[in-house]
Design a protein that fits this description.
There is one protein chain. With 237 residues, the chain is of the alpha+beta class. The chain has one domain: Beta Barrel (L,D-transpeptidase catalytic domain-like). Helix content is 35%, strand content 18%. It is built from eight helices and seven strands, in the order ααααββββββααβαα. Strands 3-2-1-7-4-5-6 form a seven-stranded mixed sheet, sandwiched between helices. Strand 4 and strand 5 form a beta hairpin. The longest helix is centred in the first third of the chain and has 17 residues. The chain starts with a helix and ends with a helix.
Length: 237
């Protein structure tokens, strides 16, 4: 019963978002959207439209274009392959796989998100990937959050892409979910190098969930050019 109610709430939130500015803005490049939809039919079309809209807003405001885009759909359970990586030039799907959410974001479903250090929650919105490095989790990838108040403390919080043994479908047989991170979008060790190599050095990553506060406030989803331009200028500097 709880799962049914949750799905109904998510459906209502998504329908509300479909009428918002992000949905309309996402149609700026219908050829790209249609190609990626065909490549990833299981991805929520609103999540994809929002990702493309946010990315296009950033590029129109001075951000360097990217060759790859990653989309995480946190409205899907952790047991689902809810990470998609697209090649924007080829308009194709590179990878679809599991991705973890933060310990305090929820059990199998992530429902709470934060930008606060020590929250152990995942963050929503548009990120720009940066340098790869060797850290405590091995080969990892740093990224900067571009959305003030929602993910712009990602670097301070050490929110990175890294491999984790607990991102394993076998965990779901014992616990009903895969393992959880401290807020990082951790991936399976078997695909970590491919994920990082495709996304490093200035690609876009977008984390989606029908959170009404974020949907209404995001400068990228609602494309506020002056605010976005100042963020892009700071991130480029």
């Amino acid at each position: 019963m709880l799962n049914i109610l949750r799905r109904l709430c998510l459906a209502a939130a998504t329908l509300g978002a479909l009428s918002g500015p992000a949905f309309a803005a996402g149609t700026q490049n219908p050829i790209l959207f249609n190609s990626l939809t065909h490549a990833a039919p299981e991805l929520n079309p609103q999540a994809l439209k929002s990702a493309l809209s946010a990315m296009q807003c950033a590029v129109n405001s001075g951000a360097r274009p990217a060759s790859h885009l990653a989309v995480i759909d946190y409205s899907q359970p952790s047991t689902a392959r809810r990470l998609w990586i697209f090649d924007l030039r080829r308009k194709s799907l590179v990878l679809r796989d599991l991705v973890a959410h933060g310990q305090k974001s929820g059990e199998n479903f992530a429902t709470q998100f934060s930008n606060t250090e020590g929250s152990f929650q995942s963050s929503l919105g548009l990120f720009r990937t940066q340098e790869s490095y060797e850290g405590s989790h091995g080969y990892s990838l740093r990224m900067d959050g571009l959305e003030p108040g929602f993910n712009d403390r990602a670097r301070d919080r050490a929110i990175v892409i890294h491999a984790a043994d607990y991102v394993n479908p076998l965990w779901s047989q014992r616990q009903g979910r895969i393992g959880r991170s401290l807020g990082c979008p951790a991936v399976r060790p078997q695909v970590a190098r491919k994920v990082i190599d495709k996304l490093k050095d200035g690609q876009f990553m977008f984390s989606w969930y029908p959170d009404q506060r974020w949907l209404k406030s995001s400068p990228y989803l609602n494309c506020q050019p002056r605010q976005v331009a100042s963020i892009v200028q700071a991130s480029n500097g």
